């Protein structure tokens, strides 16, 4: 309640003056009744009551009384009461979750059950972002949060004790790596889920130290064994279940934490609760109708959901009340981004719809009409989807950083675009310098470089650490390239990557 009161405010405070219309109407009505046409000062009160003509029984609820209640409610609704932030329409508004999977030798008997629980959790959270962290004697980020279940499945299959550099139980380091992965993502509260049969008490100090940095993120332990779990103080332990009850509980905890955590990102708009407050005025407004006829019609209309006509748009009734942007959003929610793009008047939202429809050229044109850092960032993401438009993407990301220097998503995506551009230019130079008559000696044609799954828009984070002299692409860039299925197998990639991190003396 204290958090609600601290965050509560109105978006359009001048509309609160409308509340004065209610008392004004009541005062005017009482003044008219007191005046009684000017006869009260001329005729004696006991005679005036018999001389005045009244039609029927005086109403119990007069219009001025209804106005006294109606106008303050309308004033609050129009003022836009708000107490929580609204996520950006270009960022997934579902709870992000990072799964830390125990790959120690001691947990190997329960590994198959743990992977099955992770698959059930991904299926229960269809469309939400899920990341993976592997840990044993050390902890290693395996996959940043993604909403692609096939990518999660590929990495999940590859995780086994064989890919870990050393055995052990570094639950505290796993929690720290999971929290770092959540902090690297877009705004909003997330959840770290440790999938393990036990956490020994020796991990309590490290676990508690990592949990102290959790902030708005929740910590859940999905047990695949009987414990002990003394090494995970502060975590919510979900007991194993023979069905999916434990998985459903974890998903519910993640959703509840995402919904109740305070959103303090200034880039997120405040959610306007005015339309919900306006519903309180509907019963009072119906009192002004005739004999309930209009009331019945409005009740039928308000009780019905917006229905799509055969041609894909809303029926005529709802077109009278909804703006084109609102109709477009309904189409977008229904899975028709191409139709939605034709209705959006906001160029940035139109660009998001075109991007989802696969029209990346149109999306880039629409995003270029925006004048915010977010619009420039989305323009860079659209350029990344176009063939070899990495230079244009870098220019867009640079513009976003000029408008908003503290924009880590734009900086990291720029580094990734620069890595692709360097790789393509290097392949072009090698091809030009090594032209021979033997086709098998030709280097790869730069025109054949294909990125199967370019970066997703709206805040999908990528782990980039810059180039290391003499080593080519950085570790983060290698991971980004692998995520686009450039080559190798998941197990080979994870084994080499984890070994490289362990040899460097720490977990990134």
TrEMBL record:
User: Region Disordered: which residues?
Assistant: 428-479
What top-level branch of life does the organism fall under? Bacteria
InterPro entries from the entry? TPR-like_helical_dom_sf (IPR011990), UPF0353/GerABKA_families (IPR050768), vWFA_dom_sf (IPR036465)
Would you tell me the protein name for this molecule? VWA domain-containing protein
- Name the SUPFAM superfamilies for this protein: TPR-like (SSF48452), vWA-like (SSF53300)
């Amino acid at each position: 309640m204290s958090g609600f009161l601290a965050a509560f405010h109105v978006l359009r405070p001048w509309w609160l003056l409308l509340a004065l219309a209610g008392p004004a109407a009541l005062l005017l009505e009482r003044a008219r009744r007191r005046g009684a046409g000017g006869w009260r000062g001329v005729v004696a009160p006991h005679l005036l009551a018999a001389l005045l003509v009244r039609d029927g029984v005086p109403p119990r609820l007069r219009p001025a009384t209804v106005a006294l209640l109606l106008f303050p409610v309308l004033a609050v609704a129009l003022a836009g009461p708000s107490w929580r932030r609204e996520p950006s329409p270009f960022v997934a508004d579902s709870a992000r979750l990072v799964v830390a999977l125990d790959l120690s030798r001691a947990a190997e008997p329960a590994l198959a059950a743990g992977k099955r629980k992770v698959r059930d959790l991904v299926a229960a959270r269809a469309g939400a972002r899920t990341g993976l962290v592997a840990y044993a004697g050390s902890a290693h980020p395996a996959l940043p949060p993604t909403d692609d279940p096939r990518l999660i499945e590929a990495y999940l299959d590859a995780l086994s004790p064989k890919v870990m550099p050393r055995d052990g139980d570094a639950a505290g380091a796993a929690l720290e790596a999971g929290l770092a992965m959540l902090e690297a993502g877009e705004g909003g509260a997330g959840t770290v889920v440790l999938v393990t049969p036990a956490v020994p008490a020796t991990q309590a100090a490290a676990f508690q130290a990592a949990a102290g940095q959790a902030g708005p993120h929740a910590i859940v332990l999905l047990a695949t064994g009987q414990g002990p779990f003394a090494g995970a103080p502060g975590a919510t332990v979900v007991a194993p279940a023979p069905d999916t009850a434990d998985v459903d509980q974890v998903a519910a905890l993640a959703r509840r934490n995402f919904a109740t955590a305070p959103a303090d990102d200034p880039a997120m708009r405040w959610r306007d609760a005015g339309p919900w407050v306006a519903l309180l005025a509907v019963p009072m407004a119906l009192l002004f109708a005739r004999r309930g006829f209009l009331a019945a019609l409005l009740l039928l209309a308000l009780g019905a959901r917006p229905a799509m006509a055969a041609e894909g748009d809303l029926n005529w009734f709802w077109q009278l009340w909804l703006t084109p942007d609102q109709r477009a959003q309904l189409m977008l929610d229904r899975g028709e981004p191409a139709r939605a793009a034709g209705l959006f008047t906001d160029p940035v939202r139109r660009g998001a719809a075109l991007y989802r429809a696969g029209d990346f050229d149109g999306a880039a044109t629409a995003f270029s009409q925006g004048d915010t850092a977010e619009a420039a960032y989305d323009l860079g993401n659209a350029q990344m989807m176009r063939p070899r438009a990495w230079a244009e993407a870098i220019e867009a990301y640079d513009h976003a950083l000029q408008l908003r220097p503290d924009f880590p998503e734009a900086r990291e995506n720029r580094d990734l675009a620069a890595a692709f551009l360097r790789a393509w230019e290097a392949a072009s130079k090698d091809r030009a310098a090594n032209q021979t008559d033997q086709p098998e000696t030709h280097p790869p044609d730069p025109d054949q470089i294909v990125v199967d799954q370019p970066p997703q828009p709206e805040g999908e984070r990528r782990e980039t650490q810059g180039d290391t002299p003499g080593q080519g692409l950085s570790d983060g860039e290698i991971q980004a390239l692998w995520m686009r299925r450039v080559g190798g197998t998941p197990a080979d990639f994870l084994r080499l990557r984890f070994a490289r991190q362990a040899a460097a003396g720490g977990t990134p």
